[in-house]
Amino acid sequence: MSGKKPREDVSIEFKEYHTPSSGIFFKASKQLYKQDSPYQKIEVIENEHFGRVLILDGLVQTTEKDEFFYHEMLVHPVFLSHPEPRSVLIIGGGDGGVLKEVLRYPVENVCLVEIDPQVIKVSQEYFPWLSPCLKDERTELIIADGTEFIGQTNKTFDIVCVDSSEPVGPSVSLHEEDFYQNMKRCFREDGIIAAQAGSPFYHLDSIRKKNGFLKSLFKIVNFYSSPVPTYPGGNWAFVFLSDKVHPLDIKGNPPEGLKYFNPDIHRAAFSLPNFFKDGLD
Predict the structure, then answer these.
(1) For residue range 38-96, what is the model confidence (pLDDT) as tens digits?
(2) Phi, then psi, of 167 in degrees rounded to 5
(3) Contact 201, 235 (CB under 8 A)
(4) What is the mean pLDDT of the chain?
(5) Where do runs of H (alpha helix) occur along the chain?
(6) How far is 191 from 85, CA to CA, in rounded Å?
(7) How far is CA 241 from CA 115, 217, 233, 244, in A?
(8) For position 23, which CATH number holds?
(9) 3-state class of 123 per DSSP?
(10) Considering 116, 163, 190, 278, which one is annotated as catalytic?
């Protein structure tokens, strides 16, 4: 890969601040990778409890221990709601967690668009699920800016999963109105978008702003939430977007082997706590 030897047997603490005086920390038993790509700072550390941890620009993206919460909840609610998903687009998600969950279904093709090839290479080396997914004949990997791809492609999709980082660095444009407006061009008749939306506790102002422009673009806009232990606040928001499909009109069954998601979780996830529901207005 980079030619840099991994740093091992170190004792360091990684801290991600969510406010000036609070956040989350990991004590790393090993620093497996640390290097800047042309787009962002990429780190992989190993923690005794969470296993390997992928960090981009100082923000935790995924861990071996808790990745299933986020990835299952970004993917399976839309698949349970769509009558017959065949073609899927994933924007971001270079660690492969969303791709892993999508490929549990008998889809015909999955297009993974990731801006940073170094994230792909690092994830292939340190997270065991990515390489088999990329070898799946249904997978098409495109190294490109997600915003530019959406603006230029002539392809259409049944489901789009937006697995963006926080709105900093290369992910800023994936949180803006123009990006979602362009995604409508990629919709098939029963098309659905699922996107991560941030922390209801820490990011409610930005979620409210996003809710405002999404309602002007889509007939059906439903936020939902899930625990993600290593994300700010320990609870994360997602948004379900469609012009025709309602998320509580369940049309299928989830695959076997999931750790968190099931139909009861699906229904409950769309029941928002008062502070979140009231904060959307």
Answers:
(1) 999 999 999 999 999 999 999 999 999 999 999 999 999 999 999 899 999 999 999 99
(2) -75, 60
(3) yes
(4) 92
(5) 67-81, 97-102, 117-126, 130-135, 146-152, 177-183, 204-217, 263-269, 274-279
(6) 9
(7) 23, 9, 24, 9
(8) 2.30.140.10
(9) helix
(10) 163
Is residue 34 predicted with pLDDT exceeding 50? yes
Q: How far apart are the first and last CA of the chain?
A: 48
Query: Where on the phi/psi map is residue 156: left (φ > 0), alpha (ψ -120 to 50), or beta?
Result: beta
Q: Give yes or no: residues 135 and 36 share one domain.
A: no
Question: By three-state DSSP, how is residue 141 classified?
Answer: strand
**Is 163 tagged catalytic?**
yes
Angle at 133 between CA 132 and CA 138, to 5 degrees: 125
Q: What letter would DSSP give residue 258?
A: -
The whole domain housing 274 covers: 67-279
CATH code of the domain covering residue 232: 3.40.50.150
**93 shares its domain with 110:** yes
Is 108 a member of any domain?
yes
Q: Does the reported pTM lie above 0.90?
A: yes
What HEC string does 182-206 produce?
Answer: HHHHHEEEEEEEEEEEECCCCCHHH
pLDDT confidence bin for 8, thresholds 50/70/90: low
Q: Work out the number of other CB atoms within 10 angstroms of the CB of residue 9.
A: 7
